[in-house]
Specification:
Oligomer: homodimer
Distance between the termini of chain A: 26 Å
CATH topology of chain A: Farnesyl Diphosphate Synthase
Number of strands of chain A: 2
Order of helices and strands of chain A: HHHHEEHHHHHHHHHHH
Strand content of chain A: under 5%
CATH architecture of chain A: Orthogonal Bundle
Number of domains of chain A: 1
CATH superfamily of chain A: Farnesyl Diphosphate Synthase
Helix content of chain A: over 70%
Number of helices of chain A: 15
Structural class of chain A: mainly alpha
Largest sheet of chain A: 2 strands, antiparallel
């Protein structure tokens, strides 16, 4: 399958798997379940799911259904984080993926609870059916997800992000924020993919982790570039939001040209990390290009 | 050890275990970690922890340290739910356990993220070190916690609670709300205790589950009674809040006398469920009394 067809294929698989995993909107409490489905279905590039599938199918002999569930768990954490990030007390965003954000479409209380319940569901998915050939592997996948989402990962990055608005910060602080806020979950997608099925246990795992760290940061640098260089219609969310919120970004810190150069460096490093893994890593190689391709 | 001494002993063990499990406030992001500690430490009756320990130590041969971790996981979910319930878009409460609520002491964004990160930490705790003698038991404990916390459990009950404000609801709807909102996690405390160590696998488990369901509901009926019949200083949180918010409760639906009678019935049923388990169940018997004792 060529790359664009594969992307579409995995995106559709993920949508179908999420449709099944999410509680039906006809089940009580209906409004909550509706809001959870509204937030988690029908949108997004599903980068995290693509990373889980690309890693798992190339390196672990995992069944596609196991990868679907691992991918859904990561996507559910991502969906929860977007709902909470968009709330008025956080980024106060009205638009996401070209649709009204959850608290605009429903209400704040429902958005809060939908985010909470999506986070819980992510862990439930990983506990309900094994994504790994062993119970120990299943537990490790749960731990990887928790570490990526928690106060040393995504939630911690968000806290630094909120605190940094309106302040000048160093490049080191910016990197540490981005590594947590976006990088941790993108990295977890690769590591959980590598933990699926029989798992990747030799030094190929270190290679994959190095790749994962580079694209985790790359993803956020590209996001900073797109926020500064695109319009709202193209983004499907409010453009120029970081600048108007006084949020430090790679563009505000380095300027557009150097931010692009930094993204190019990260892309090269990601490709280099994969090189010794040979042909098997071709999907991951293409995914690194895919993540960066709108930024140059 | 007599019952009051045992309660104090377990409460202190739980506090110590939580102190260790929660990230230090000196670790970045400091404000987030401070808020997490503020919310989870130094307060509460630790009913859920007492239930984990009483069940686990009497029926499963679990090590006390395993029960500490299981208890902390349940208490962390409880702590997260209180932070989010108190937010302005939910119950908008200013006082909790005699202290300003987290969003009052810190700010709304920090409170939101602290709740999010405490939920994640609960799952991380159960994934990091086994509370069970087997990996399968560990996974089952994680699943029990997720089912209790999610949209069919605690978060779902909260959604029904919010939606019911200002509306007349039937006793059936009220019960279904309470069973989810408070009952699910109280029940999970018993079931996770029963899943610790070597686990309780015979028909004693059904007995414990029946007990757990009764006290889960009892806990909320008692809460309704106390909210109506106490003052703010005694409660450590704003009294009469349910009535002023137009929230249906057992007191608003049945009146104080019949609500008390219902609580007495639930207490008897909880005791009856334990009777065939003999002496081993004595702590759980005492805990049922402890849960209800301020209501009569």
């Amino acid at each position: 399958m060529n790359f664009p067809d594969w992307v579409t294929y995995i995106q559709q698989r993920t949508e179908t798997a999420l449709q099944t995993i999410l509680p039906a909107a006809s089940l009580a409490p209906c409004r909550l379940h509706e809001a959870m489905r509204y937030a988690a279905l029908g949108g997004g590039k599903r980068i995290r799911s693509l990373l889980v599938h690309a890693t798992g199918s190339s390196f672990t002999h995992a069944k596609p259904e196991q990868l679907d569930r691992a991918a859904c768990a990561v996507e559910l954490i991502h969906a929860y984080s977007l709902i909470h990030d968009d709330l008025p007390c956080m980024d106060d965003d009205k638009l996401r993926r070209g649709k009204p954000t959850v608290h605009v479409e429903y209400d704040e209380a429902t958005a809060l609870l939908a985010g909470d319940a999506l986070q819980t569901l992510a862990f439930q998915v990983l506990a309900e059916t094994s994504v790994s050939a062993t119970a120990a592997g299943q537990i490790e996948a749960i731990l990887l997800l928790a570490q990526a989402a928690g106060s040393h990962g995504m939630a911690g990055g968000q806290a630094i992000d909120i605190a940094s608005a309106g302040h000048e910060i160093t490049r080191e602080v910016l990197e540490s924020m981005h590594v947590r806020k976006t990088g941790a979950l993108v990295r977890a997608a690769v590591l959980i993919g590598a933990r699926a099925g029989e798992g990747v246990l030799d030094n190929r795992r270190q290679r994959l982790d190095h790749y994962a760290k580079r694209i985790g940061l790359l993803y956020q640098v590209v996001d900073d570039i797109l926020d500064a260089a695109s319009d709202t219609a193209t983004l499907g969310k409010t453009a120029g939001k970081d600048a108007s919120n006084g949020k430090p970004t790679y563009v505000s810190l380095l300027g557009l040209t150097d931010a692009r150069r930094f993204a190019e460096d990260l892309l090269s490093e990601a490709h280099e990390a994969l090189a010794p893994l040979g042909e098997r890593a071709s999907r991951l190689h293409e995914l690194a290009d895919f993540i960066s391709h709108r930024a140059f």
